[in-house]
Amino acid sequence: MASRWNLEAEEQGRNLLQAAKSPNCTRIDAHCSQCRNQRIPGTRRSELVCSSCASGYRLRRDGISKTCDCAPGLAMDADKNCQPCTQGNFCPGGDATNPTNAESTCPDGLLTTFAGAKSQAQCFTKPGYGRTSSKGSDGKVSLAGVVCDIATYNVGQNTAGCQKCGAGLTTAAIGSTSAAACQAPAGSYTDKGIGKLCQKGTYSIALNSNANCIPCPDGITTANEGATTAAACSLALKGYFIDSTNSTNAIKCPLDTYQDQEAAVDSCTTCPNGWKTKETGATGVALCLAPPGFELVDGATTITACAAGSYKADWNRNPCVACGSGLITKEAGSVSKDACLVPAGYGLTSLSPMVAAPCEKNTYGDSVDRAAVANARCTACPADMFTLDILNSAARVGLYTSEAACLVKEGWGTTATLPQECPVGTYNEGKNRLPCRSCGTGWTTVAAGKTAATQCVIQAGWKMAADGIPAPCDKGSFSIGGTEGAPNATCTACATGYSTQEDESTSNDECTVCAPGFGGTGCGQCTWGTFASGGAKEGDACASCAVGSTSKKGATQSQQCYSTLIDARNDVFNLADENAWTPDNTSANAAACGDVCTGSANCVMYKFVSAAGGGGQCSLLSEEASNPTHTVGFKIGNGDDYSVWGLTQAVGAALASPAVVADEAACKDACSAAAECEVYVFKSSDKTCTLTKSELEEASISMFHVVGAKLYSDLHA
Predict the structure, then answer these.
(1) Lowest mean pLDDT among 93-102, 266-275, 391-400
(2) Which residues lie closer than 8 Å to 169 by C-beta, 6 or more apart?
(3) Hey, is 508 helix, strand or coil?
(4) How far is CA 366 from CA 315, 334, 389, 404, in A?
(5) Which residues pair with 135 in a beta bridge?
(6) Which of 255, 227, 225 is nearest to 239 (CA)?
(7) CA distances to 172, 212, 237, 246, 336 from 227, in Å
(8) pTM value?
(9) Chain segment 179-215, per-residue pLDDT in tens
(10) CA 351 to chain centroid
């Protein structure tokens, strides 16, 4: 305890002494900033030691504590002052091993990049060098700089070793300082930072940074990759040959030849079997092909065109493809399926497989070959039309190439729309495209669907006329028409007195009205002085002529009603024997004389001669009823009829000498033909005919009497 106290007391004493007066530390070292007394071991004495140094200095840890060395990064100059370490060197600071506080140099190839470097670790690489480290036996790590070898580089100012160039790249020498020094060697090129061998067909002749090698001339290549000279371009590519006059010129193989090697050849090989190449420059026999439209038939030595009915669309060695059963092509060598045609008169029956067959059984094809498309089928004939194979119940003959092959059957005909069975009155032999033909005017058939003109018969209401032409039955007759057994027909007259209302009546049932000139019960003949135009119902009486007129029996119209007294055109009809006149003294005038004449059935005519003082003489001529020698006919109108009487003499003045005629009718006709003739006089004894006329005679008048029973038309009915 005493010892400890003594020590503490001694230390407190020293502190009191120091506190009382600070020692001069620079006596120890010029850069000591603080110092203290320290007992010398083994003695009771003490000495002054430095405890800390000024900024930039450090107390040397040698157990003596009296030396201030330069801090790391500083070196002592000639004036014993610490200065920043110069750039390029490093200063680890002073110590017993570096008592002079000198700068240390970096290993070769290394240097520091700033002033004040403190350690060798701050020695960075020079450009073109790499830094390495090694551990000594003492465990210390030491650094070294090594020059960058070929194919490596370092940009410097770093702690790295030399960087390898990209794969396949190298440098021109050692000590390369940048990646830019990494280049592709001869026979290579640069691609994305690596070197690659020049591909076959290219070369490079020196270090380079090119992105591509130099290509050989077109069509020429090299034997291997990595070619380093232009002379290596010596082989023809496949599909080429070397020009024998210029080894740097390659020529494409001509069409229909090939070259399948990379070799120094001066010609190409001709394709076998006549095969062709699609383009020049074929690179192998596999490109020798049959062009579209050609094939190599089994056993053949050369290609030939696709046979008609087949095609081949592409360049290949395939066989031609058959269009399909029944299909054709226009010629051999077709190159497309589109060349496959459905022949005229054919139609598709199947699309897969493609099959065409002749159109038949009421169908028809096109008139020309047509494309084999889905709608290239046979077309059905219109309704009620047929092809000949059906109409004849026989095999088809020839091809049906249009609707014209569709025909009507027998007894049918075409119309503007659909065929129809030939109506009554028409016919068609069929197996044609004609309309039904009319039998013709007045002809018909006994039924519809007739096939020949020989089946036409006279239609009901018609007859076969004498001239061989059908004519309609007139009113008053009818016809039931012909039959196929007796095609002609005649008109049958209705029963006497009966008629039909129209022409072309077809049965006796139509004879229901009275005929012209008939009327009353049972349609009897109209008597004198009446007429009927026909068409009246049975029982309707004949119409009467006007008062003072008459007509023949069976008169058919009012125009056949004639006045009972007709004037001479001149004055009088003189007689050959004027004594034949019979005076009538009861008549004071001509009218009364006429009444007397018309009141007598035998009065032929009258003559009235007027007296100067009034009144006059009436004379009558009567018919010779017992034995007449002359037939005298007075002309009514222009010869519409004649009032005929028997006399013993001529009447009127003769127009000409008597002429011999065949009969009375001829004499009448002669008068009708002569405009001046008013009377014909016919003597049956010698068949002489005299034509006469009235004469002028002052104060005289003469009129002939017309009696129905005495009319020529009635007498000769």
Answers:
(1) 93-102
(2) 151, 182, 183, 184, 185, 188, 190, 193, 194, 195
(3) helix
(4) 33, 22, 18, 11
(5) 141
(6) 255
(7) 19, 13, 16, 21, 49
(8) 0.52
(9) 999 999 999 999 998 999 999 999 999 999 999 999 9
(10) 21
